[in-house]
Design brief:
The complex is a heterodimer of chains A (about 325) and B (about 525). Chain A is mainly α and about 325 residues long. Chain A is built from 15 helices and no strands. In chain A, α6 packs across α9 and α13 crosses α14. The longest helix of chain A has about 35 residues. The two termini of chain A are about 15 Å apart. In chain A, about 40% of the residues are buried. Chain B is globular. The relative contact order of chain B is 0.15. In chain B, α16 runs antiparallel to α17. Chain B contains 19 helices and 19 strands. Helices cover about 30% and strands about 20% of the residues of chain B. The chains are: A mainly alpha (about 325), B alpha+beta (about 525). Chains A and B meet through α2, α3, α7 and α13 of A and α8 and α14 of B.
Chain lengths: ~325, ~525
């Protein structure tokens, strides 16, 4: 069998096992959290009778394993069940929220990845000279600011003072994947770009610099090839594996780590959905979000690994 | 009618004066309270403008919110539910009396045991069905029967199953008299649904001014006006929208940028900054909600009244109102009632910080000097952790050692409140003193979070409940308030204001001490001017 194909199959298999394990851990985790759904959902207005009625209706009196396998059975048929809190179909809600999150992440990534990689190359070109320092300082400063602060600054300066871009609440209109919505999410997307830029840029810079010290680059230099061409043609392709890795990691962050940005822009994505569900221990929703987040990580890591192997032919033919 | 009085009432309507001051000024002008209140109501509806789209941005909602009124647990859903649904009774925002809503009128027997509510005729649900007494009965059943999951269960327990439909009337026969029964039926959970909502509790079909168009929990809720709505002085907009914005700064930004017309829960820290914005106005109203420090009177060391008194005298109420509420509130007096309630016992002396007395009572209690653990979290109320530290410091000055244990906000209401012997907490107000005492200070109350179990107190409570004579009622409530003030396990440092902010274009705002956002009725009572 084609080595790449078998590698992918193996990775998919392991990935599924990881997701299964995470779903079990998450289930136990929610169980360990103090207070169950009935108590937390009714909050200060909980009477013992109402709590008992909710527990009975949801089968919270069943043993842990029974409930887990009931849930798993549903998931294996593609049904995440209904929310305990508002009886809404989790599949439907999840699809809506996940689409919103993916949309925002995609808009951010489309700008962040090319900018980060080219800035990294520019920094290498001007290594230890002014542009390199400026790029480094600015990107490090950006990553050092908490993202809620960046978001607030953007809201204040752009949405309120300059009247450019939309402030909170930002609720995309149907159809989701439209230019109008890209405009709508400009500020949260820009916030995300600022947050993920530095990491990717610095990794690109470090990876290329590493290559730049090798003998073949020196040869190219001695042959008189122009610096930018060396970086672009000779160094970058060989540095691609670590760059793909860091890009994948940051893409995963854009999907699962944006809850803060979602909250300050009141954007209806996965993060807030997840947090709200955990607050009241709405198990079907918590599990569904957890599985999706785990899947995003697994898939992106797999893509990164496979990409790295494809980028380096030596890895395709292991001894 | 004097021009001055009319001017005053307009100021109340515009939110420049609160209704209590108005009633006082009206009395000074020699106008009887009922007339003044009527005048205020008529001014509130002076010149409403119809049409437009009203958007409010509210904190408190979540993506777990449901349209089932029985499980309505957030201010967002309470606003949304009053957009499409209505209760039998509405507390008057001015004088706190019970006013007809879907119940046209009611009568009580002399002992306040038998009540007959006449259900309004000619009212239709948004599905076209006519409202009948059977729907009302079915609604009460759904909230009170043995399968009930309703948040109103604690309230309707009082009624039990002793109600029935009789023609167009709802008849309730109580085992013990209750002069405040109409207020129980004003609970926001008890929205009348066709067949009580038994068929589909989340259908959002009610008798309200609007019909739900879109419900996206935790995000957006939209409704449009019904043409066949029964009443002309309610629900002026073509359509209304409630947006979930839980972050304080985001909510403020939404209001400032004009994306929403009104927001709730303005932080006391930023309200003075917001006041400077020329297009905005602040509507704050002193409500009945209060921030409390509660101890279990049956658990050591709090079972010693001297220790409780020591803690009470060591509380610097003025400082807390000043620093935690930034002045947007009023001092409490160690019983859960303030002047916003009818029959407020105004003769109980205000307790003030007195370190000598605190030290004296602490010494007298014979406490061994080990630090007393106070559990707190900002989940109890905004600023609870700071309030705990301020309290700790003033206790220290009186020689009372306090140990503060910060608890996670998550699960605070299920793991700390009503479980641990000494913690910070919050009580939203109730429409009547009877309800406040019944939910939290009656021996058998589920939420008796101070473990206050006193047969003599219960007896007064039940006597006051059936008492229709106002002067006697006030006497009884004074006696009860005094008992808690002197011996209770509750320390009430402050009553908080509800602070809402709106655009200046929003008119018809009625400040209502019952709940924030004008008792959840912005969409029904207000209108937008050009």
């Amino acid at each position: 069998m084609n080595p790449v194909l078998s590698l992918i199959l193996l990775r998919v298999g392991i990935g599924l096992l990881v997701i299964l394990a995470i779903s079990a851990l998450l289930f136990i985790g929610v169980e360990l959290l103090p207070g169950d759904f009935a108590r937390n959902f009714l909050g200060q207005s909980a009477t013992p009778e109402a709590v008992a009625n909710i527990r009975k209706e949801l089968g919270l009196d069943q043993p842990l394993l029974t409930r887990y396998f009931d849930w798993l059975g549903g998931v294996l048929t593609g049904d995440f069940g209904t929310s305990w809190a508002n009886k809404a179909s989790v599949n439907e809600q999840l699809f809506k929220r996940l689409s919103n999150t993916l949309f925002l992440a995609a808009v951010a990534a489309v700008f962040a990845v090319p900018i980060a990689v080219s800035l990294g190359m520019v920094a290498v070109f001007f290594r230890n000279r002014l542009p390199d320092h400026v790029i480094n300082i600015v990107s490090l400063a950006a990553i050092s600011m908490p993202e809620f602060f960046v978001g607030y600054l953007f809201i204040f300066f752009f949405a309120l003072l300059l009247g450019f871009g939309d402030g909170p609440p930002i609720i995309p209109n149907a159809p989701l994947w439209s230019l109008a919505n890209v405009q709508l999410v400009a500020l949260p997307a820009a916030t995300l770009v600022v947050v993920v830029l530095a990491h990717m840029m610095r990794m690109t810079r470090a990876a290329i610099l590493n290559i730049m010290d090798s003998a073949y680059i020196e040869t190219a230099e001695l042959k008189g090839v122009r610096m930018m061409t060396i970086i672009r043609k000779h160094a970058a392709p060989n540095a691609i594996a670590p760059i793909i890795n860091v890009v994948a990691l940051n893409l995963a962050y854009l999907v699962v780590g944006v809850v803060v940005v979602e909250v300050i822009f009141a954007y209806p994505g996965m993060g807030q959905y997840f947090v709200d569900a955990v607050t009241v221990r709405d198990m079907p929703v918590v599990q569904a979000c957890g599985v999706v987040f785990a899947a995003v990580y697994v898939v992106l890591n797999m893509v990164a690994d496979v990409g790295a192997i494809l980028a380096n032919p030596r890895l395709m033919h292991p001894k | 009618m004097s021009k001055e009085l009319k001017d005053l009432s307009l100021r109340v309507v515009r939110g420049q004066m609160n209704r209590r001051d108005f009633m006082g000024r009206a009395a000074a002008l020699g106008v009887a309270a009922p007339l003044a209140s009527q005048l205020l109501a008529s001014t509130a509806q002076a010149a409403p403008v119809r049409g437009g789209h009203f958007v409010s941005g509210l904190s408190g909602g979540a993506s777990t919110d449901t349209l089932d009124p029985a499980l309505s647990a957030s201010v967002v859903m309470q606003n949304v539910n009053f957009v499409w649904g209505e209760c039998l009774v509405l507390p008057d925002p001015v004088d706190g009396t019970a006013q007809p809503w879907l119940a046209e009128s009611w009568e009580a027997s002399k002992d306040a045991k038998k009540w007959v509510f006449k259900i309004r005729k000619g009212v239709t649900f948004s599905n076209g069905k006519e409202l009948t007494a059977d729907d009302v009965v079915a609604t009460l059943h759904r909230h009170s029967d043995e399968n009930s999951k309703s948040g109103a269960l604690g309230v309707v327990k009082n009624i039990g199953q002793n109600f029935k439909a009789d023609g167009d009337n709802l008849v309730i026969e109580l085992e013990a008299g209750n002069a405040d029964l109409p207020f129980l039926l004003s609970d926001y959970h008890l929205i009348i649904q066709p067949n009580g909502g038994m068929d589909d509790p989340q259908a959002a079909i009610g008798t309200g001014a609007y019909k739900m168009e879109q419900n996206d929990p935790g995000v957006r809720h939209v409704a449009s006006r019904r043409d066949d709505y029964w009443r002309s002085d309610w629900g002026y907009y073509d359509s209304v929208e409630v947006l979930d914005i839980s972050d304080d700064t985001a909510r403020t930004a939404a209001l400032t940028s004009g994306k929403v017309h009104a927001i709730n829960r303005v932080s006391p820290k930023t309200v003075d900054l917001l006041k400077r914005a020329p297009a905005l106005k602040i509507a704050n109203v002193s409500g009945r909600g209060h921030y409390v420090f509660i101890c279990h009177v049956n658990a050591a060391p709090f079972d010693n009244n001297d220790l409780r008194l020591a803690l009470k005298y060591a509380m610097d109420r003025e400082e807390l109102v000043d620093k935690i509420l930034r002045g947007y509130g009023s001092v409490g007096n160690d019983f859960p009632i303030n002047a916003a309630y009818a029959y407020f016992p105004d003769s109980i002396p205000q307790r003030v910080l007195d370190l000598d007395k605190a030290a004296h009572h602490y010494k007298k209690s014979g406490h061994d000097g080990t630090p007393i653990t106070l559990r707190t979290s900002n989940a109890a109320f905004p600023g609870a952790e700071d309030a705990a530290v301020l309290f700790q410091q003033s206790c220290n000055k009186a020689g009372i050692p306090i140990d503060i244990k910060r608890e996670p906000a998550d699960g605070y209401w299920s793991n700390v409140w009503n479980v641990k012997p000494f913690c910070t907490s919050y009580w939203g107000g109730r429409p009547t003193q009877d309800q406040m005492y019944t939910v939290a200070y009656y021996s058998k109350a589920d939420w008796n979070d101070t473990r206050w179990q006193r047969p003599d107190f219960d007896k007064l409570l039940i006597e006051a409940r059936a008492e229709l004579e106002p002067a006697r009622r006030k006497e009884l409530y004074t006696e009860m308030g005094l008992m808690l003030h002197d011996e209770g396990g509750v320390i009430v440092p402050m009553f908080n204001d509800f602070i809402d902010a709106t655009t200046k274009k929003l008119d018809g705002i009625v400040t209502d001490p019952t709940f924030e956002t004008g008792n959840f009725l912005w969409s029904c009572r207000t209108w937008l001017t050009a």
